[in-house]
Automatic annotation (TrEMBL):
It comes from Streptomyces piniterrae. Residues 110-296 form the D-isomer specific 2-hydroxyacid dehydrogenase NAD-binding domain. Keywords: NAD, Oxidoreductase. Belongs to the D-isomer specific 2-hydroxyacid dehydrogenase family. Signal peptide: none annotated. One of its GO terms (molecular function) is NAD binding. It holds the Pfam family 2-Hacid_dh_C. SUPFAM superfamilies: Formate/glycerate dehydrogenase catalytic domain-like (SSF52283), NAD(P)-binding Rossmann-fold domains (SSF51735). This is 2-hydroxyacid dehydrogenase.
Length: 338
């Protein structure tokens, strides 16, 4: 069987093709799945997609009409998929329930250190042989307080690093992680976390209850010199409110690997284009803001695990089996995915 895979990155392609070698043919495309590209999948029973694919109801209908019965998404998040529509179309939807949490946690720490110590600004200066230290002063993080919002596998990995640095640990989640408690993390309400944390890092999924978790009120409750890091999903932050906060001179630094309107921008070369997103354009003007292109997951280990899980999803679908990665199985919507 030949499978078509959308949104395949150049570094990902050989790993993906090697994983399916001897099992199925894989057609790797660098274009992302959306309304315009969905007709490409006509005749393919199995389609693999990336995190920024548009799998809304009308796209799913186009795929289904073209003969697609199974979608294997190469990501953990699935807020881009209309699961109810997929169920109505009797489709099977698989995702990757987990991969290396260290990839994302370590990158989140990379963003933290970069904005705290002004590393990007310093590197840009020294390329021009400007070796002044003006404006580059950071702060010791040891002894300061970190607020970890979301203490699952990634949040736990971030907490372990914070513990090693010697930070005071606060956490917020709907379910407490006993391993984080063993590290000394104290669970508190959002309001207390916002008020006391010097560093706030986001590791929760994007669902309706967490959309704009960081809104104008949350930002107003934070310390003026706090650092905010998001390596989870862009929709967790109200970006317009964040811009207003930064315009007021608040927050020491912001590190973002995700953006709520990143679809159509991230993973593309837009360097020669006119960017019509005024919010993102304004955000990029702040010297204390570092934006990267949704790459926190992008390590050899994590991508390898994502691809391995994708192969398993495909094999299980073809064998009529289900697994923990299945969000919809031939039109059946598990309770956990509702």
């Amino acid at each position: 069987m030949e499978i078509v895979a959308f949104g395949v990155q150049a570094d990902e392609q050989p790993l993906l093709e090697r994983a399916f070698e001897g099992r199925h043919q894989i057609r790797s495309l660098d274009v992302f799945l959306n309304r315009d590209t969905a007709p490409i999948a006509r005749g393919y029973e199995i389609v693999s997609t990336s995190v920024n694919a548009d799998l809304s109801a009308d796209v799913l209908q186009t795929l289904s009409a073209g003969g697609t019965k199974m979608i294997a998404q190469r990501s953990t998040g699935f807020n881009n998929i209309d699961l109810e529509a997929a169920a109505d179309l009797l489709m099977t939807i698989g995702r990757v329930s987990s991969y290396s949490p260290y990839a994302v946690a370590e990158f989140a720490w990379g963003l933290t250190l970069a904005v705290n110590r002004r590393i990007v600004r310093a590197a840009n200066r020294t390329r021009n042989f400007d070796f002044r230290l003006d404006g580059l002063m950071g702060r010791d993080l040891r002894g300061r307080t970190v607020g970890v919002m979301g203490t699952g596998k990634i949040g736990e990995a971030f907490t372990r690093i914070a513990h090693g640095i010697g930070m005071n640990l606060l956490g917020w989640d709907i379910v407490e992680n006993p391993r984080c408690i063993e590290l000394g993390l104290k669970y508190v309400g959002k309001e207390q976390l916002f008020a006391e944390a010097d560093l706030i890092t986001l590791h929760v999924p994007l669902v309706e209850a967490t959309r704009h978790l960081i809104d104008a009120d949350a930002l107003a409750a934070m310390k003026d010199d706090a650092i905010l890091v998001n390596s989870s999903r862009g929709g967790l932050i109200d970006t317009a409110a964040l811009v207003e906060t930064l315009k007021a001179g608040r927050l020491t630094g912001v590190g973002l690997d995700v953006y709520e309107e990143e679809a159509g921008l991230f993973f593309f070369d837009r360097s020669l284009d006119v960017i019509n997103d005024d919010t993102l354009a304004r955000l990029m003007t702040f010297g204390n803001v570092l934006v990267t292109s949704h790459q926190a997951y992008f390590t050899e280990e994590a991508v390898g695990q994502i691809i391995e899980a994708t192969v398993t999803n495909v094999q299980d679908y073809l064998a009529g089996r289900t697994n923990e990665n299945m969000l919809v199985t031939q039109g059946q919507l598990p309770a956990a995915a509702r």
